[in-house]
């Protein structure tokens, strides 16, 4: 067997391992329904918002229209916006006749060692006394019963953190090509079933919609535990799973996909997606050149080699590469179908992986230039 046939066989072996022994990461996971609790706990919805005046008219009304039966309110944290975000929020609440539901506060000056979003979230937590806190991004649209479903599930399954990977916008060519791949890669890195398993060391969350039990947040010492984290959702899941249930008791977390909560943020061009990835990709690799090199080599072997061998290899290497590419496509297909795309998109995954590799290199470049973690005028990495 030739050298490239051996490499193709290694790639195929890797995909077979991922198929049968990696927590069924390829299978979209949804939260099971739950019965209503005997009593509905109180909830504060904390919305960190920086320059979100354009998004709020489409997102905030969906929060104001929640049909939750317990006590609840919204705390919007205006994070040094320059576009009148706070005023827009107040006007929307007044127009909906829900001014009493909304409290707008100004985020304090950013303290050293804190990332901007976590600091804004923490200032909202300081205003809250509710049993649960729902951290909700300002560019997310909720179905009327999304809060009810989250709380019912958390109470029924005794969860300390329930988060949902919201349905991302997927309409432009760039989005169709790259957004399902983004969720697929996330699940590959953090298999949802393993994250939800109390006996597994995997912990992850999705920051667009995170319901946190207040006692769990207190048990970890509050958001100060993750004050410097750019990938705040997974960092919070990690510390809550480790000790959110009590001093020596692990917390229970749940991560699932959901259709009823949708992202309004659009990525019309490939450059928009590249910037989204580049913001935190190198942070995920702990800013390590060694991890970067290993990631690029691994992705090259797993994603690029099968397609290359299938198209340009000879005999054995071509057949093995084509088989690995086919298995890859079959695993990716459920996510493609979740986003209501043609199943044929599943076989574009190697090309999407190449794009993500380039964006990861760009993330490292930005970090080394002192521009890492850029978000609305802040460079935080």
Explain this structure to me?
- This protein is an alpha/beta fold.
- The chain folds into 2 domains: 3-25 and 270-369, no CATH class; 43-263, Spore Coat Polysaccharide Biosynthesis Protein SpsA, Chain A, CATH 3.90.550.
- It is built from 13 helices and 10 strands.
- It has helices at residues 3-21, 56-64, 85-95, 116-125, 146-156, 173-189, 192-196, 214-219, 232-243, 270-284, 289-312, 315-338, 349-368, and strands at 43-49, 72-78, 102-106, 132-136, 140-142, 161-167, 209-213, 253-263, 374-375, 378-379.
- The strands form 2 sheets. Strands 3-2-1-4-7-6-8-5 form an 8-stranded mixed beta sheet, with helices on both faces.
- β2 (72-78), α3 and β3 (102-106) form a beta-alpha-beta unit.
- α11 runs antiparallel to α13 (349-368).
- The N and C termini lie far apart (46 Å).
- The model has no long low-confidence stretch (mean pLDDT 95).
- Classification by helices and strands: alpha/beta
CATH 4th-level superfamily of the largest domain: Spore Coat Polysaccharide Biosynthesis Protein SpsA, Chain A
Q: Give, in order, the helices and strands.
A: HEHEHEHEEHEHHEHHEHHHHEE
Q: Uncertain regions: pLDDT < 50 for 5+ in a row?
A: none
**Rounded average pLDDT:** 95
